[in-house]
Queue: 3 jobs
Job 1
Amino acid sequence: MQPCPQPPETTTPPAQGEPLRAPREKFSSSPPSSCPGGGKAPDDAPLLEARGLGVRVRASGETLVSDVSLTLRRGRCLGVVGESGSGKTLICRALLGLLPPSLAAGGEALFQGCDMLTASPEEARRRRGAGLGLLLQHPMTAFDPLRTIEAHFLESLRARRGLAPEEARARARAGLADMGLDDRALRAYPHQLSGGMLQRCMIALTLSLEPAVVVADEPTTALDARHQFALVRCLARLRRERALLVVSHDLAVMQALADDVLVLHKGRPVESGPAAEVLSAPRHAVARRLLESRRALSREFLRLRETQS
Amino acid sequence: MSLTRAVREDRLGACCLIFLLAVFLAALLAPWIAPHDPLAVDVRQKFAPWSAEHWLGTDHLGRDVLSRLLHGARATLGFSLLTTILTLLAGALPGLLAGALRGRAEAALMRLCDALLAFPSEALILAAVGMLGPSPENAALACIVAKWPWYARMLCVVARQYADTNAVRFARVMGRGLPHILRRHILPRAAGEIVVLGTLHMGSFILTISALSFLGLGVQPPAPEWGAMLGEARDAMLLEPRLMLPSGAAILLTAAACNYLGDCLRDALEPGR
Amino acid sequence: MTPPFLEARGLCKSYGRPPRAVLRDLELELPRGGAWGLLGESGCGKSTLARLLLGLEAPDAGTILMEGQPLRRWRARHPGGMSVVFQDYTTSVPPQCSVEEILAEGFPPGGPRPGAGDLHALMDRVSLPRALARKRPHELSGGQLQRVCIARAIAARPAFLVLDEAVSSLDTPAQARILELLRDIRGDMTYLFITHDIQAAVFLCERLLFLHQGRIAASPPREDLFRTTNPIVRDLLDNALVFEDGG
């Protein structure tokens, strides 16, 4: 509970001026040029695809996730929603070939045509490094405590993207600035930064590697509201050129980012469809519960905004 | 409790536990199950080979080795267990208290432990026994004096970790005192680690007590004790080397079983299992 | 004139070497009753302020008075008079204890031991099924465990309840249910609801306190929230991730 020793973060609010009312425009989501169903152009081949994906406990055979199929194309964002314990995180891990050894995956998880479930650990790691970015809920242990944030950036950008230190440093600065952090964070050691700041450093580092697919597992939970907003905006920008898989229980995040939504309940998909439909008129009880609770949480805020401005 | 499950899942760990229980039981029942009087000298029978009469033969005074081994287990294991428990108590109490209190109490205890741990413990034990005079009680006392800071330090860290949780903060907000916090929040969670530490160090205390008796500083002849038996066998090593086997194997196996069981239990406490 | 319920004057607190000031001359006055939202970015000192108000840590400078008495004396005279619910429910309970035993810890020390009836009444108040009484923390969901923490916190009928990011780790359905619960059980308790989420804050609280750089930067009533021009407040309002209905 000890607060962090120093917050080398800028206190200037992120650039404003966007209209408050329309969230989709607020996050600059120009719809992708390709039509949703068409798949003729080679560019439109799925980047990430799961067919009948399942996860079970090796020892007991208990099924945790079953029958999950999803397709992720360039320029699209797929949202996976569900209550806690619905298996959202397991799906992310299975898709990336990152399940713990006690769990076994079934079905197919294709990343750029390679099945991550059957690939050797070495092959899976190479594939992930080349084109997959993962944003975790609590990446606090992801940094080497003996090295500065800058060293992490320089090494990753050199190894993965072959960038010279100067170039890498410039990109690191830009990435951190996006997350509301300045040069002081670049020079800091991990222990000098708070959890939220480390989270943002991790996000900046992941995004600076320009992965083709970003998988974000509850990326906003460890952040405060301001930085949640900044991250969502950052992801929205990224979505236009890449593919994004976002996992969250918060429909506000989904509304801001997702083109399509998959609703999970107890490890099974219970509803899927375009975000606009699922988020306005959900059919399944779980989706309705998520929507009702989100509405209930925002209602007072929206009422005040309505009556006072 | 996860410790019992760990032993059930680890076959070798379970074997170690059963072996140790059997050894302790044999030690307890020694007066009834030993075939001969461990002190009965029969010089005509000296260095008798293994036979139906003397399963493990006889020593240089013709005493039955099996009987001496069983009676010796009482001394070796008894003093080791006593030493382990007393050392744990002597270290755990101040350690847990200091870890729960933090601040100056913790700093003072840690510096004291630093100072005491700066002496090599073997030298300290030898010096203490040398000053107090050779006897098993003094050997045990010396072990306690030399080893308690080590436990205090370990358990202070354990207690500090558990004292720094929201659960303890809530108890403090409710105005609960230190006894409640220790009893409810720290002792139950530290208990597992205390058991593990005890098991691991039981093995090393068996070695220390045997070593002191081997050197003639612990249990005094003619009373049987594994280390002392090994010492007596050494004198006849060239003549009858097999005499070293029973006591040597007993020390080795018991200490190894303690160590392995301790490791197995410690693995169970590691997070992520 | 009666003194305010809670009064903090010139609170300062620094951490680390070299010391970094987290709270700087913070002034705060709360009347009895009502729910107060304490908002601010992460690392702005919200939890530090909570620890000082709860008497878990001493301020470097400044005083805290409860009903005109120094905090320490007030706490001694009102055992169980203040309580707290933390964000991280898993570390808030001893893992080896059953729900019953955890709840029993919420009753004031030195008082009579709570009977089964007391515990059941308490579980009913927070809508916890009585069947959970003998379960252990790891068998409960996050929302259920946070209910246990809330029940434990209100067992002694505290006058002052600090909710330190009490819903931030829960999913939205659980958040909404817990916030409704907190609203329903408030009675004459005074809440200090610490959060970074302004939507949750206005859900529960009539007045909001904005903590910025170690001081209270603004304290608008809920009904004037959107009319304030304070840049700190505006920043949080404009950067809230809102679910736009029908949009």
Note: The interface with chain B takes residues 54-56, 75-76, 79-80, 82-84, 86, 88, 91-97, 105-106, 108-109, 149, 152-153, 156 of chain C (CB under 8 Å).
Job 2
Amino acid sequence: MMRKIHLILGLFLAPWVLMYAASTMLMQHRELFTGDQNRIEPAYALVREEAFQGVLDKSGDSEAAAARILEDIGLEGSHRVRGSLEEGRLEIRRDRPIGSYRITWEEDAESVKIEKQRFGMAFFLEMLHRRRGFGQAFWANDVWAVIVDLFIVAVLAWAFTGVWMWWNMKSTRSLGALCMILGSALFALFVATI
Amino acid sequence: MFCLPWFIMYGISSLAFNHPSWFSNGNGQPGGQWKMVDSWPCSVEVPNDGSIPHEVAQELVRTAGLDTNTFGAYRTGEAKITVYFPSFRKMRQLIYRIDENRLVMNERKKFAQQFLTGMHARGGFHHDSLLNDSWAFIVDAVCVAFMLWVVTGIIMWLRVPEMRSMGAVFLVSGFLTFVGFMVLL
């Protein structure tokens, strides 16, 4: 039973394991992969500029207006918004793993400009790594956050079922114990000193 | 077995990212207010814009009489530079108020959330210190272990004929779910 759980979780979550491992290595060695120590956002390219006929409630908040604009142009989903209706300008970032969108609404121009971010493998992996939480009102984001929770449970389950399986293999008990003691001692040293 | 403490740490600390309110009552990072513990007159030259050169931050650290290579710096306003010191135990920062020619050292109590997220996010070889580089090296080893887990797990699964169909269902559904997210998110 323990082995089955260990295996099934591992097979289902394999893409997440690979994504988290690859993205962590990438963040650790950004200079090697991207040539810069800081995270570089790929550039945006203009997709289209269209008239925006919708009426935005100026007394409403910018978040509600952004949701309205996204709905109007068919890009609903997780987003961030900058600017305000009073200023007459909103910049909406519709965050997506495969190419985010930047939507700029300008009251004077009565239009929205839609730009799409070019794909960059390093940015893509890092964005997926950082994606978490139940803070957005979209079901796909909540399901992703549930999978992140499942991944956390799986990592802990792998660790504990791994210990259980090791304990049942008499031939590797001493070597395993030595590695575990060494690892734990080193971890404690790091916590105490750095 | 060697990497076990890191696996457990990454598992638990991820909860602090996915459920920040569990650790902070929904009020942002706990830990109280920064308290000033010392200050010095300071007149280090800082470029007007762009990132803070390492040498400038190093000079500020030296002015505060600290002997460490583990720090980073960023702008927190037009005339303010913050130097931070990643540490598992202490929360400490230097604030350089350029207008006032003054350098201030602040400290704050560290709570579970900062401890966990700090540990999770710690990495990289840019801090010039053996212990920090060793930590970063182990982070790499944990990543390699994660990848090996997948590869060896698949090999072990293929060697168990009675698990082959069920395993294939989970493997394929995992990949399809992942790809589905790329489209739906």
Note: Chain A has two domains: 2-22+136-193, 44-115.
Job 3
Amino acid sequence: MHNNPPETGAFYPRDPDWHPQALTPGYKTSVLRAPQRAKISFDPTLGEIAGPAFGHGLLGPLDNDLILNFASPGESAIGERIIVHGRVQDERGRGVGGTLVEFWQANAGGRYRHKKDAYLAPLDPNFGGCGRTITDAAGYYSFRTIKPGPYPWPNGVNDWRPRHIHFSVFGTGFAQRLITQMYFEGDPLIDICPIVNTIRDQAAIGQLIAPMDMANTVPMDAMAYKFDITLRGRRSTMFENRREGN
Amino acid sequence: MQRLDRLKESPSQTAGPYVHIGCVPSFAGIEGVYPEDLGRAMITGDAKGERITLTGRVFDGTGTPLRDAMIEIWQADAAGLFNSPAETRGSADPAFAGWGRQPTDGETGIYAFETVKPGRVPFPDGRLQAPHITMWIVARGINLGLSTRVYFEDEAEANAADPILSRIEHKARVPTLMARRAGSVHTFDIHLQGENETIFFDV
């Protein structure tokens, strides 16, 4: 990372057919929150191409360990112990090193530690539900947590969220900023979730489903799931940012 | 023929109602995991430039303020430089992060950033853009984070020459991008729908 000059090329346009549209009536909350007019497009300027960077000094020793980072001394979160790991890459397949990845989730019973979550499943006194890490120079990250539970939510009369972990990723330019969710291989709730189904393309949904990864399981300790995240790619910088007449 | 072999961007999913747990945990009532919420303070020392407060609300299609949104802003420093590894024109003010993150209040829906007035940044063709702040809004019910720009209504001359503002066909919508000034407080409300729907950008 430090040996390479920063990349300053503009980003590839987003594919609006791959992302969910704003108005997705199956997910009722979107109806009054979806802009109705066309977005105005322009080729990224420096403000979109550049983005904030966060140093490893930001991180505490337990930031990527949700089993311990809210637990009392000598205790740990309840649930299936898992490792989630993968690579943050861009659409060119290049690893995105040194980027901040944040994650949050419900506890093993499907309850969030949030003042607005009133689900009757109990809080786990040893589980907060947030973590973060910074990718290594090649773009890899990992963290340890418990497998979140599914939970019911008010949308239809009987809608349930599949087990999922929320991800927030920065990338190197602010126009790469992305929030998404990771699902777990084999969860039967994925196919019937109104939020998952805001995405119309099954291949795009598949990109958010993490396979079980036996090779990275820690025997007698924790299961593993692999979740790669792809951010927008950049154009070559060679012919970028020319002034008029050049 | 060769193949482009390009990957697809991971599709977005809503940040949901509990985005605060991961991004501003103290707002969710979670203390002790991090020393403080990331992005709470943009000014970390004796930052140069004019100190301003940027505040407002995000309204849905009924005019109800969103009380579960999260907003991030990203801007140049007072000299027009970004605090980013991709800034190759010089070094930004080390006392100014350029990036901030705030939730909308759980009761009032009001967000507020303490920041500095940004300097002007060149467009790729060399023309100067008017001072502006890039804003990104996520919330329950928003499937892909919304990008907009905050301009300043008292920068009439710079706004008139701004390459982005001047390409907006429907001039009647341009005021949706203007923060209203009262002293050092600049108010910028976002309307997700309706007659005054804010201009959102695909960048």
Note: The helical segments of chain A are 46-49, 202-206.
